[in-house]
Structures are given as C-alpha cells and as structure tokens.
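Please decode residue identities from the backbone states below.
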C-alpha cells in the first residue's frame, strides 16, 4: 500500500475538497505549500509558518544537494529533523532549477550535468540520483525527475522535451522503489499543446504514480493560456489521485485553478514579494514602498487576524522598509502566508457548502474594488 492516501470529500463543479494523508499528517486540499527552498521559509520560524495554517512545506532538491548536502541532512535524521518541521514535506526533483541554469548545464539522455551556481563545482542529476537525494532528505512526497519545457517552444521542441521527461519518469519510478513513508508524483509536460499533454498523461498512467503534477506552466505563457491548458489537461487526470499545479501562483491563479480541479499549489510569491514590501490582501495588492502609506494608521487588512494586522500599522511597516529593518520581512511574510492560507480555507469551506461559484465571484469583486497599489 502507498504511503500516500487521497480522498475527495466533496466537489462543487470541478473544484474538489479533499485530504492527502501521509505518515506525518494530513494535508487539507485545496492546499498551498509555502516554499522552503534551503530548508527554511525565509524570515519565518517553522512554528510561525504552521500558525498561518500550512499543513505542508516544499523543499528544494537542487539547492539542498549543493548546500549543505543530502548526506549531511540524512545524518541529522532527514530534512524534517534538520529544519524542525515535523509535518509533511514535498521535495521537487531539481529539474526546474536545472532548466534555469541554461548557461551552466548540458542535457543528455542520462540526465543533466551542470556547474554549481555557488562555487562552479560539477554535478550530475539524473532520475536515479534525484531519487537517491530525495530519499536521503526523507520528504513525504517525492517528485519524478523531469525537464521543465521552456516557453515559448515549438511543437517539435515541446514533444522531444516531453518524451524525454516521460522516459525519465519511468526511470524515476524504477529507482524510487517501495519506501515506507514516501509517495511519488509524476509530472505532466507538453507545454500548451493538448495532444502532447494527452501523450504525457497516458505515459504517466501506464507507469502509475501516487499523484500527478501539471508542470511547465507559469513560465511566461500568461494566465489565459495557463487556464486554457488546465481546461484540457485536468480532465485527463484520474479522479482518485491528487493534482498538483507546480509553481503557481497569484491569488487569482489559485482560485481559477481550483475551479478547474487542482488540489495542490506552491509558489514563492507570498514570501518573495514580502521581502519587496508587497502585501497581498482580500482587497488587492499593497506596495508598502509607496509614500501614501507613510502616515496610514490602518493595518494591511482590517479583517485579517495575522500578527502584522493585529498589532502594526501600514505606517510602521513602511518605516521598517525604508529603514532597512529585517522585521519588516517577517511581518509581511507572516501576513502574506496567512492570507494565502485563509484563501485556501475559504475555498475549502465553499466547496464543502456547495457555494464555490459564489465564493469565486465575491473574491473577484473584492479584489477589483480594493485600493490596489501598482507593484
């Protein structure tokens, strides 16, 4: 029996309310996974991340293999113990980061040889080495090794990239084995081409995985084309497995993708944008760099219960940013993650009540009516 069990408790249209059960806890879906690239969610203690409502974090195979190294993390009892996060962790395969190293890597059938962006040392990532590293990290959900197809890509380029990823998916499954506490997700590729996505899904289903991710989106194609791709891809995926949209996204992306049947997400936006003084709220985005916040006594969001909104004004956060104080990173990150988790909780409640369409309309109205800052 797989270490990952998934159940759908309710649905409303294509939106699904469910749960992914792991040996380290249950992930309520739709779920948003904060990104802990290097064994930490930047500017936050693990306890603070949990307090926002997060059930699961994402760790990064590429960065952790280079520093501090998978062997060291394994000696410390795995990533959960090393970073003091006892709940579920998903690790990506390293494929996306390798894609971004175009000047430092070479792709062959065997895998990807690349130079470290840290010290220039040479490394090889293959389906087999990615599985070995993720086993050492001890994550609960392991991702198959793939090539993230860049955008735009011709049909032929996308086809060759997808077919390579499907061969790597089979090798990933073979190398994964049958660990007691880990599940393995396959990744659908094929860029924005429906026929290629169908070939990819069929190949992954032939291999068999514990969950299925949609990769190769949010790489420059725009929201409309991303949604169009989800419209024809998601119905191809099995109903009894979790569906994960990788690297997405804005609040509008999350709501639109849940409406299309996606269960899991990750994205750096709430944490990265926080370090740029950008806050997400139910009434749109706020740029605290702007001078209009200098004397504003209001919290970021009057209806938000996060630590930043309970105790601090926009004026104070504006001051912290202007003064270069690190506390601003913690406060805005806490707020953004809280907002994202509350958005997911709101969608879960709406799906359970059969009111998701009304929730989506209300969300769009509130976002459009707010005093949104240019970011």
């Amino acid at each position: 029996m797989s270490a990952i069990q998934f159940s759908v408790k309710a649905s409303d249209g294509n939106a699904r309310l469910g749960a992914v059960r792991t040996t380290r806890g249950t992930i309520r879906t739709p779920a948003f996974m904060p990104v802990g690239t290097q064994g930490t969610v930047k500017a936050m203690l693990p306890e603070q991340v949990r307090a926002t409502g997060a059930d699961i974090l994402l760790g990064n195979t590429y960065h952790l293999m280079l520093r501090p190294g998978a062997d060291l993390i394994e000696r410390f009892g795995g990533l959960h113990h090393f970073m003091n996060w006892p709940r579920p962790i998903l690790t990506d395969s390293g494929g996306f980061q390798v894609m971004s190293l175009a000047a430092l890597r070479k792709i062959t059938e065997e895998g990807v040889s690349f130079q470290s962006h840290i010290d220039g040392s040479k490394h090889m990532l293959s389906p087999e080495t990615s599985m070995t590293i993720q086993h050492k990290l001890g994550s609960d959900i392991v991702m198959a090794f793939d090539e993230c197809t860049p955008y735009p890509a011709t049909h032929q380029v996308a086809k060759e990239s997808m077919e390579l990823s499907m061969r790597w998916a089979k090798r990933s499954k073979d190398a994964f084995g049958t660990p007691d506490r880990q599940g393995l997700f396959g990744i659908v590729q094929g860029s924005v081409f429906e026929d290629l996505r169908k070939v990819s899904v069929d190949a992954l289903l032939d291999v068999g995985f514990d969950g299925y991710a949609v990769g190769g989106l949010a790489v420059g194609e725009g929201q409309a084309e991303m949604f169009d791709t989800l419209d024809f891809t998601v119905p191809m995926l099995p109903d009894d497995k979790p569906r994960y949209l990788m690297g997405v996204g804005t609040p509008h992306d999350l709501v639109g993708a849940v409406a299309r049947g996606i269960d899991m997400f990750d994205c750096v936006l709430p944490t990265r944008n926080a370090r740029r003084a950008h806050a997400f709220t139910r009434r749109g985005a706020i740029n605290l760099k702007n001078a209009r916040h200098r004397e504003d006594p209001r919290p970021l969001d009057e209806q938000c219960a996060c630590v930043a909104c309970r105790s601090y004004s926009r004026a104070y956060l504006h001051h912290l940013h202007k003064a270069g104080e690190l506390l601003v990173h913690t406060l805005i990150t806490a707020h953004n993650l809280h907002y994202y988790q509350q958005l997911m909780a709101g969608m879960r409640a709406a799906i359970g009540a059969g009111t998701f369409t009304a929730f989506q309309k209300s969300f769009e109205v509130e976002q459009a009516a707010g005093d949104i800052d240019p970011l």
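Observation: The mean pLDDT is 96.
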